[in-house]
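Most newcomers find our protein records easier to grasp once they have seen one. To make this concrete, we reproduce a full record directly below:

===
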Amino acid sequence: MAQNSPHSSIPRIYRRTELLAAGWHGSMFTAAVRSGQLVRARGGCYLAPDTAADVVTAVRIGGRLACVSALAARGAFVRAVDMPHVHLERSQSRLRSTAVPVRMHWRGLARRPHPAAACVEAFDAVIQAIECQAPRDAVATVDSALHLGLIREDELDELFAHVSQRKKSLRSLVDGRAEAGTETLVRLMLRGLGADTDIQVKIGGVGRVDLVVNGWLVIECDSREFHSSWEAQRADRRRDQKLAALGYVVYRPIAEDILFHPEDVVAALKGLLGCAKRRNSGSAAL
C-alpha cells in the first residue's frame, strides 16, 4: 500500500471495493490494519498509515476535511485550527460518532471533489475559511492561497460569488503578492491608519522587503522559522544597516505580536508614522 507523500495536499481514501478489484481478499485487510499498513477509518474506507489525525477523524464520521483544516494541511495561512473542520453531504443522515470535537460544514460545494479525496477542493476550503474567520484573517487566507497557487487570480470573482453578502467586500482587499499571512495582517493595519503601502518591494543593493510604507518605512514581518538563528539575525541586521544607509527606517514586528498582540503592533506603527508627521511639520515651520 502506497503511503501519502509528506507533501501531498490531498490524502486519499482507499475503498474496500477498489482494493478487492486490485486482488485483495478478506484476510489481507485484517493483516494490513493489524500491521499498521492501513488505517481503517470506517466500514469499507481505509487510509494510508501516515494520514494526519484530523483527516482520519473527518473520514471516520463520513466526511472530508474542510475549511481552515484543509487549507492548513496544504500549507496556507489560517488563524488557528482548534478542531477538525469537516464537510458532510446534506443527504447524510447517519454519522459515526467521534470522541474528537469537530466543526461541521453542510453547505453544498462549488467544486465536486474526486470520490477518493479525503479533503474538499482548495477552492471550497477558501470559501468556507472566509465565512469561518474574522475579516482580516479571511483576507490573509485568500492572499496565502493565491500566493501558493491553490486558487488563481481569475477565479476570485467566482469564489466571492459564493460567499455571504457581508463578506463580499473583502474581495477588494485581496493581494496575492504577500508571501505570508502576517504580511497581509500588517498591510491591513496600515490601511486602517491611512498609510500608503507597497508590497514585496525590490530595493537595490538589499533585495526584496515585505512592505514599504509612505516611501521611507520598511517593515519586515519576522517569524521564528526563518529568523531564530544568530546567522539569520546577523544577516537581518546587516540588511537593516544597508537600508538605513539608503535613508529607510526599519521595523520588524514578530509574528507572535502580529497574531496575538496586534494592538501593540498598531501602537508602534502609529508612533512611527506620527513621528514622521511631527518631523515634517517642524521642517515646514522652519
In short: The domain at 181-285 is CATH 3.40.960.10 (Endonuclease; Chain A). The mean pLDDT is 90.
